[in-house]
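Q: C-alpha cells for this one, please.
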Amino acid sequence: MTGRTYRFHCNSCKVGMQKVGHFVRKSDGRRVQRFRCPACKLGRSDGSDHPCYRQNKRHLNLTVRGLLASSVSQRRIALVLGISRLTVARKFEFLANQAALNHEKFLKNFTDKPIREIFLDEMEDRVHTKCKPVAIALIVTKDRKILNTHVSRIRPKNRNLYVISKKKYPAWTNNSREGFRTLLKQTVSFLSSDVTIRSDQKQMYRDEIEKILPGSTHKRYKSRRAVIAGHGELKEGGRDPLFELNHTCAMLRANINRLVRRTWSTSKKAESLFKHIQIYADFHNTVLT
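A: Here is the predicted structure, written as C-alpha cells:
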C-alpha cells in the first residue's frame, strides 16, 4: 500500500479510495469508473465532480445551447427535441450558469494583455410589457467579441406609456446610469489605461467615462439613421464608425428570440433576459467569432 497513488481521497477518513468496478451511464452510454473508501465505505465516481452530474439528458446540452442562440424559443425547443418544457427551463438555468463561468475564463485572457479599443452603447427592449422597458448596455471589442453586458430598467419615452408605467408600476424606476456605471467598473480591470472608447454622443457615457476611466480617449459619433425604419442597429450610407458594435447588436436582435422586433416571445423578468444574453454571448465569442 505504501507509495501507491490514488486518484481520489476520502475527505473524512483521509485515505485513498479504491476502484470497485464501473457502470455504463444511461444518459450518454459512457463507461464510468466507481470508487469507494475502504474505511467508511463512502462511494463516488469519475463523474461526481462533472457540471452535468445527475443530468438525465446531458447529451442535449449543446443542442439546446445552439438553439437558444439561434432565435428558437424554449417551447419550440421542447417540441422539436421531444422533451418537456420543464427540462428546457432547467437546461436554460444550467447553461446560463455555465456561460457565466465560461465568461470569467474568457476575461482572464485580457489580464496580461489589456484591451486598447472598445465600443459601447445601449440597446432598448421591454420586459413583459411596453410599460417596462429596459436598457441593455453592451461593450464590444475591435474583433466583435462581447466583453460585457448589463440590463437596467428605464422609463418609457412615449408620454402616454410613461404615465401608465409610473401609475401601474411605481417600482419600475430608471437605474440605467447605475447599471452603466457598474458595467464600466466590472470591465475597467481588463482595459489599458489609455484605452480608446467609441460611442455615440449620449451625455451619460461621457460623464461616467471621465469619472471611471480618466486616462482614456473617448471618441463620440453622431447617431445615424437606420437602414430599416425601427431597426436602429445597422446604419445606412457609407462607413459606420461604430460598425463592430452595431453589427453585434443586430446579431443579438436576430439570434435571441425575445429581442426580435415584433415577436411573440418576451421576457417575464429582467434576470431571465440577462441570462439569455449570457448564453448567447458565450456562443457568440466561442463559435460565431
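A few notes: The chain has a mean pLDDT of 90. The longest helix spans residues 85-107.
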